[in-house]
Amino acid sequence: MKNYYFILIILFSSCKDDYLDVIPDNIPTIDIAFNNRATALNFLATCYTYIPEHANVVQNFSMLAGDEVWYYAENDFYMNNETSFRLAKGMQNVSSPYLNYWEGGRGAPHSLFNALRDCNIFLDNLVTVPGLEEQERLRWLDEVKVLKAFYHFWLLQMYGPIPIVENNISVGASAEETNVFRDPVDDVVNYLVQLLDEVIEGENLPGVINYIYTEQGRVTMPVAKALKAKILVLNASPIFNGNEDFNTLVDSQGNSLVNQTYDPQKWVLAKDALYDAIESAESNGHQLYEFTQQIPINGELSEQVIEELSQRAAITESFNPEIIWAYGPEWTGDLQMWCQPRWTADHSALFGYTKKSHAPTLNMVETFYSKNGVPLNEDIYWNYSERYDVVSTPLLDDNGENYHEFYIEDNYSTAKLHTYREPRFYSTIGFDGGKWFSLETTNINNIPYLDAKAGALSGKQGFEIYSITGYFAKKLVHYENVISQEGSTIKGYSFPIIRLSDLYLMYSEALNEVKESPDSEVYEYIQKVRDKAGLDDGGDLVNTWQLYSSNPSKPSSKDGMRDIIHQERMIELALEGHRYWDLRRWKLADEYFSQPIRGWNIFRPDVEGFYEVENIYYRNYLIKDYLWPISQNELLRNPNLVQNPGW
Q: Which one of 159, 236, 435, 468 counts the least CB within 10 Å of its CB?
């Protein structure tokens, strides 16, 4: 995360067109930016400040630009998001692109090419600095190399082929030198891997951050290896590995910018890099998070509540061992306010803390498994066709036990869709009748619950500030938050960029793509994630599918296991922004994002009326939407650039 030590006064304005800032007597500040350790540290901080704020739904548009979350409006008195939400609506354009990280603007706070320029200035000038020890100098250089790789990676995900910024172009360069070409995706990936291999082989980065309050968010060796792995996974995925939809993406020199031939070796490289990244992370103390803290409430925490907190706190608990890289606490407070529903009069009175508008969609809600750990439409004991029917609680099983005791309020009518779901559903989603554990819970047997129907505390009460779908993003709200007239606390946290579970699931994915058919090695790492999620009753997913699925042999085929891994990622990493990038790299975005955005009829106060499925928005996601457009102005400025297909 950014912190009060690391972000200092910056002597250098990175957003200006001229990379030299000038002090009053016209002496370039580049000379004084590296004349002692303190000023060099300022410049290092500058290189970090370009990281998009991952808790900001504008800068990190992946949280909102797909089908996972929806808002009731894009612009009102309380909120202005005419960028990522317009992407979600399919309103991208070439004249002035939204989230223009190529040039900066329309929601993008910077051009990431400016970030790359500043990284190169740092790498070129951190040579001999008074007061800076050699080992520290080498560490700083490698940190910036990793940042340089990250900024290239962010652009690569958006635009596909991009110009490699290995070195800065001099100020007096000719037009021929400044009018660069886009480099093929494979060349960009090879360059980034080479850059990260230099860092990995140099062994100058720490394995772990020891000074968490002054250096948290800075790059470590596990971060460098994880980033390398993610770059290689992207390059091995269908979007860039034999994607014939990009066969027209050819530059003016006749070079094809995306390889049209599928190369299975790319998955081998990704697999090996992921193994190395996981080994590095685990050897430096990273592990899947389990909640073990004591909480000052009446009654002992149940296994279900502990499981819920293990899932939620893996995101919201700063410095927890599952997080490999997290950055920026500045926006998580605001994000939580948009996620937080209301269930008391205090919440309504203090509505600034409870804006309840960051609304998960019914599309995403249906992704979660049944309590048996298989998709709803496969579970032979779960009547999928009746999922929208209303049922009343408590619901008792054949042994007279109430599975929903800590999940759903008793004597409440809710949708069957909310019943007998896996623990991660109840950890991630707030819903009508669903319980919401926090430090506002005074007794474990009396957990507050939500009433999301029109006119109720959690529901639509006016023209603004409500959930358009009837759902709420519980996973992103810290359980320690307290909202009351006596004093309210919104506990910020650093939003995760890379978690260990992310690496585990990518490793299973890569293994499955490499092998002829799934085996125990493919199952091992996805099983780790499922075990933490409380699935499979201590057994394994193969047995679970045999017992509960209408497709019992699904885990034994490569295609079936691919589908399982895809769904597992969409569940485990829900609401963190991964679904958007994953569906794009799998070439499934046109299938998912073209479905109507759905929710409940939040305008109705009665049970029967509320539980009518509403189509909120229709979008037609096109092949061209897989890559960002380059603005027309940039194409006019540099005639050597070619536009992405369809734009």
A: 159
